[in-house]
Amino acid sequence: MPNKCIIASALSFLLCFSIFAQENQNKKEEDLPQIIDEKAIEFKDDIDPLTPAKAAFLSAVLPGLGQAYNKKYWKIPIVYGALGTSIYFYINNNNEYNRYRDAYKSRLAGFKTDEFYFDSQGNPLTSPRITDDGLRRAQKFYRRNKELSLLVTLGLYALNIIDANVDAHLLQYNVDKNLSLAPHYKFNEMDAKSNLGLTLNFTF
What we know:
Blueprint: H1 2-46, H2 51-61, H3 65-69, H4 75-108, H5 132-171, E1 179-188, E2 193-202
Antiparallel strand pairs: 1-2
Helix pairs in contact: 2-5, 4-5
């Protein structure tokens, strides 16, 4: 008989504990959507998904404008310096290419009046300073350099757009106390040893 009482008491205790745990679980589940909604609202307030697209669009319209929109003003001189240098080389190579091409076309037409038939003082020469073969090689050289300069210019222009877009993304990156990685040091009293490591804190 005493054994039956003990078993009945134990079963009653376990039943009460189970009901209590179930009620706590239901309460937590009821509170969970509200917590998630609050975090979602806070997250939406902090992040504007259109900001990176806007920064990229501004840089596409005018190089450096996206950097100004992101408040990275120190990058604007770098953008214009890089683009200005590549444009300068393109213009210079294009002018040289046209110079040698015009001289070559003049010779093909039967004229001997191009600039390479004269010395630096403007005096006529008996033979040209650059042969027809040399003019062809010069055209090929400067045409290749001109095309390369154009590709570099387009690449830098695209890089300016990508940089503005990535910067706008990184400005909205969530870095706060709720998410942190920090080193820790702990002295273990059981074996008198020191423990070093990294702690990842994530609060939600």
